[in-house]
Amino acid sequence: MTNLDLFSVKYFLKNTFFSSLFFMMLFFAGNKMHAQNIFDNESSIKYAYYLFENERFENAAKEFERLVYILPQDDSLKLFLVKSYRKGKVFKQALLRSHELQITNNALINEWEKEGLKNLWQSGQAKKTDSALLVTKAQTFFEKEIATTLGLAYSYKWKDARNKSAENKFADSAKTILLHNILVQQKNEKYKNPGVALALSTVIPGLGKVYAGRWKDGIISLLFVGGMGIQAYRAFDQRGVKSTRGWIFATMGTGFYLGNLYGSYHAARIRNNKINEKYLLQINNSLDSLY
């Protein structure tokens, strides 16, 4: 091949390379512009609401966080950001953002205040209900009454909540009657007194657990404590107070007996907590309808 031919080949390859590079740059630039069109603000907002409606609250919160940063003047985005955290059970972040963000849209203030109270209740801070209601601006009288009732329920003050509910159950047939019915159902539950469970097991090991509804545990406690007691008695009867085996069984029996007392007291509390959780779950599942 001549020098001229080599030059022509090199020239062709060089121009082909730069032409390809140029077209590749155009291609990626076009894709970037296209991606920006896909993920513009309007499309991002639609996507965030889509995630929220499909209960993908963690991803929805991330999208709303980004949108609130880009569009800080849009109060509805702030509201749904806090809602996403609450419904995703990230209560600490929900409370933090509800305090950091401020809204000026009068049409959303009522719902914003309600969201703040819901976060208090579901994060275990129901005792702050009264102080939070003092600074609300958009709540009606009956909305405050419902909020007070819910605050009492979330504090496990069921009787007080039921009495407050009875005062207003006909104020709003869709909300207050539903809440009142839940509270009336709770009244029919049989709670167990931990002190009574403890006293029963003091007299007869395991009886307190039976009282708390844990029959198998009660029978096992009776057998273990009784068995250790019998073995200790036999050993002491045969060898007197110097019986090593007697002291071993007596020590084990005493340990089982004390554990039985604690277990009986705890069993009653566990039963009561399960009842409370059962009705709080009902309220949680209906919270957006109740308030």
- Poorly predicted sequence stretches spanning 5 or more consecutive residues: 2-24, 26-38
Can you write the helix and strand succession as a string?
HHHHHHHHHHHHHHH
Radius of gyration: 34 Å
**Residues in helices, as a percent range:** over 70%
Short description, anyone?
The protein is mostly helical. It is 80% helix and 0% strand.
Describe the 3D structure.
The structure is a single chain. This protein has three domains: 1-38; 39-117, Serine Threonine Protein Phosphatase 5, Tetratricopeptide repeat; 194-280. The radius of gyration is 34 Å and the shape is elongated. It is 80% helix and 0% strand. The protein is mainly α.
Keywords:
single chain, 291 residues, Serine Threonine Protein Phosphatase 5, Tetratricopeptide repeat, 0% strand
How are the SSEs ordered, and which strands pair?
Elements: H1 3-38, H2 41-53, H3 57-70, H4 75-87, H5 91-100, H6 106-122, H7 129-134, H8 141-154, H9 158-168, H10 176-187, H11 194-203, H12 207-211, H13 215-239, H14 244-285, H15 287-290
Helix pairs in contact: 2-3, 3-4, 4-5, 4-6, 5-6, 8-9, 9-10, 10-14, 11-14, 13-14
